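User: Structure please.
Assistant: Input sequence and predicted structure:
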Amino acid sequence: MLESVKIGLFLNDDKVTLVESDHNKPQKIVSATVTSSTDTPFPSDLSEEIPFVALLQKLLRDNKINPGPAGISIPAKEVLLRTFVLPWMSSTEANQAIAFEAKKYVPFDLSDLSYTYHSMTWVENNRKLLWVIFYAIRKQTLEKYDRLLKQIGCKPTLYEPSPVSLAKELIIKKHLRLSQKTIAVIHVHEQYGQIIFYEKGIAYFLREFTLPLSTGNKPQSIDTYLVNEASKSFDYYSRQFSKQKAEEVLLFLTTPDRKLAAILAQELSVKVKMVEPITMVGSQRLTGLDSFYACGVSLKNSPLRSVSFNFLKDKSFESASLVSWNIVELVPALKTAVISILVLAVIFMGGQWQLKGNEKQLHSLFLNQGALASVPVDQIQAQMGQNQVKLDEYKKIPVRTHLTPSLIRITRALPSGVWLKALRIHYNSAGQIVLNLDGYVSSQDFNAQVKIVNEVLSNLKVDKVLSLSNLQITMTQKEIVNNHAVLYFRMESS
């Protein structure tokens, strides 16, 4: 059973949306924009994640949300959605067959991906078929989300594609019903559009497209472009997936546009319903589908019932296990060969098997015991206990090479006008950071210099990652450097 999701997250390029829920009811919802630093002293993939980690920590701290089980709704641009049909087969055969078939539709090596799928039995022209809804994501992307959650003290319990989270939230808000066979969701943002086709709450097809930049002279060109893209998507879906016409279109716009809704309804010959993407939690109000994604992934009891798409329950497998389906044709011949070999082996070995069996078993046991053959059992158990204690102690030895993130946090704690003369950092026997630093403060007057030194101390002590609560100012002294009055300071932690 899926562990209760307490925190739901949705992260895009420059924004974080966080929901704290109690079972299926959001308690708090917050959102903030990420401000990336362009002057990071140690640029890398990990340093690009630091602004997100810092912002998430601040949101948790400022809103008094305790870290706990968390789910992430993964943006559609980071996942692959493919839908295909297979001949019906048992569940034990399905995993291998689905992975084999997916290789035709996924432009990456399956060994680099994590994937999840849902299969459904379908009858067409008196033939039983297997409809497969297949989602895949790069393992490197999942590792990024793992690092983010672990650095803020959360335990990952659910990684699901955002179209799934959106469907769950739309069902909760009663915009979508499981009884609806085909419904399209169109989301129009400032620079892109997205259309998703759902059948009974499950996304079958997703398409994203960029919108032309508005020049101000012909604003209607964007509406025309959107109508054309929607028409192409509807035509493709009817050819590839379902001959049945969509019952309804849910239209999400940044700014409500009844004229556009009327045009879509006329061109597509379908009912169009405008939905304002607004989430209210108490006095908190958020606008945009980001909040729908975060709320949807935070639901403990999914309204999709038995349907689950969770990348943490990876159904991928070793590629070496793939076998060509043509081997089925060789099964009769293989059975005959195996039986013949077994009969010959029994005739050849039967006379000696029973005689040598016990002797071989006794010799094997003696070899396995080796030097322990004469050692009492209680002495062996005592030695095992001692080894386990040693192993537990070895596991407590901290890794002392990952200082880069700590150095980044220290440099960011320094206000303007502060420069360091010396920095000494290492780990003590308890695995805690020990920091000694010397520096100078340049400001207009002595009181301002003292205030800045206290600010440096405060910034370092409140950083929960550095854990320098015992850091103290051990020395301050006025000095003249390059004809400027500065304040020398020293800070030390034990």
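The longest strand covers residues 113-124.
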